[in-house]
Amino acid sequence: MTTIPIPSHASSAARVFPPEFSWGAATAAYQIEGAAAEDGRTPSIWDTFSHTPGKVVNGDTGDIAVDHYHRFREDVRLMADLGLTAYRFSIAWPRVQPTGRGPAVERGLDFYRALVDELLAHGITPVATVYHWDLPQELEGAGGWPTRETAYRFADYTALAAEALGDRVPTWITLNEPWCSAFLGYAAGAHAPGRTDAAAALRAAHHLNLGHGLAVGALRSALPSAAQVSVSLNLHAVRPLADRPEDIEAARRIDAVGNRIWTSPMFKGRYDEDLLKDTAHLVDWDTLVHDGDLAEISRPLDLLGLNYYAPTVVSSPANGDRLPRDDGHGNGSASPWPGADDVAFHLANDEVTAMGWPIDPTGLSDSLLALHREFGLPLLVTENGAAFEDTVAPDGTVHDPERTAYVRAHLGAVADAIAAGADVRGYFLWSLLDNFEWACGYGKRFGIVHVDYETQVRTPKTSARWYAEVIRRGGLD
Ligand code: FCB
């Protein structure tokens, strides 16, 4: 077993986290809930995709997942035992509004009401993500995210969720990682709905942005004024392989379609000229973006959520390609980078997790500081964590020192960013529980709590005990 050394550059800063810092963990509905056909829930694009042969490793599906729908009280108890102060979960659209239209299904909302009440009763602050990739299949049938109408449907669903839960959920996240929804889902085909159409993916990106903006409006109307509204972006910490003009150009292109396609409309009210130019052969932006869209998309947010796992190292195609182009999240048959599909990807280093993602916490501190300087918003790390090949010892314990080292190093990077001036308000470890890791199925375990998928028995790993100690101390030692 290899252990990951803690990089010295991530351990120098004072380990001082603000006293009100949120110590959390994150999950997503389709990855943990199961109960796929209960209480009125109908299929989402992930039900359809996972039931399509060849799309998910081992033919795994989220039908049962870790049965959180029935075991949420036990799971909240686990969170309380660990001392979590906050919990980020997602609301399943097909549970709340199964066809993607019309009134809410109260039984679906009741599940989230009960979950939130249980969290509050244990002193854990709920953080709700409205959309973590489970579009109702009916809306995909009507065109999905490449169709403008989906953005309006999303805003209506958001209003239903906020009206039901707004009195007890103080922090709301509109979308999780729209890059994955648009580009893994519609360009690479690695994620649901599995389409490989670069032009459709760019249209999806704009409609996700529009859906976000409309949802912010819906949340502001339904929520008390103290509520906080955010979005979770998997911004790529892009680095050129070498200080060569052609590699720097490759990094610019990936930054445009990976990062600025979200941050510029959301925070600056525009799409950047270079992005429009890079993708002009695929989409007519003048027709796609209607008057008023950018004002809608750039409604002010209270917080910005960053999901970070690894840096992204790129070069010009001539300088080699060591990685498949699927960005590690599954085996897409096409590129997830419209307008930049010839860029070459490299590992930042050879120390990788079970996902093959390189371990480098400096990408986290760099990103937090860059976001702080550019947008000046309070920040949350809404996901960070690692999959490793965990083994259950004969005595039933799961010793996962690599995960502990990973989280320790990345919390160090958060502390570095705070010490350098970034206003980081919380950290949500991905994930509380082992779960359905999308196209990788159940083979990749991200939890700090081990789940035996046969018996559904939960066993906190040693990383969970370590994290509990960090929370108790309010920081690293
Ligand atoms: C992120 C997803 C999350 C999980 C982690 C490992 O991209 O938001 O659901 O799959 O990766």
What does this structure look like?
The protein has one domain: Glycosidases (TIM Barrel, Alpha-Beta Barrel), CATH 3.20.20.80. 39% of the residues lie in helices and 13% in strands. The strands form 3 sheets. The protein has an 8-stranded parallel β-barrel with strand order 1-2-3-4-5-7-10-11, surrounded by 5 helices. A 3-stranded mixed β-sheet has the order 6-8-9, sandwiched between helices. The protein has a two-stranded antiparallel ribbon with strand order 12-13. The two termini are 25 Å apart. The N terminus is likely disordered. It binds beta-D-fucopyranose. The site of beta-D-fucopyranose has 12 residues, from loops.
Layout: helices, strands, pairs:
Elements: E1 22-26, H1 29-32, H2 45-50, H3 68-82, E2 86-90, H4 93-96, H5 106-121, E3 125-131, H6 137-141, H7 149-165, E4 171-176, H8 178-188, H9 198-222, E5 228-233, E6 237-240, H10 245-268, H11 273-278, H12 285-288, H13 293-297, E7 304-307, E8 311-315, E9 344-346, H14 362-375, E10 379-384, H15 401-419, E11 424-430, E12 449-451, E13 458-460, H16 462-473
Parallel strand pairs: 1-2, 1-11, 2-3, 3-4, 4-5, 5-7, 6-8, 7-10, 10-11
Antiparallel strand pairs: 8-9, 12-13
Helix pairs in contact: 3-5, 7-9, 8-9, 9-10, 14-15, 15-16
Bound molecules: beta-D-fucopyranose (FCB).
Beta-D-fucopyranose binds at residues 28, 31, 176-177, 180, 234, 307, 383, 430, 437-438, 446.
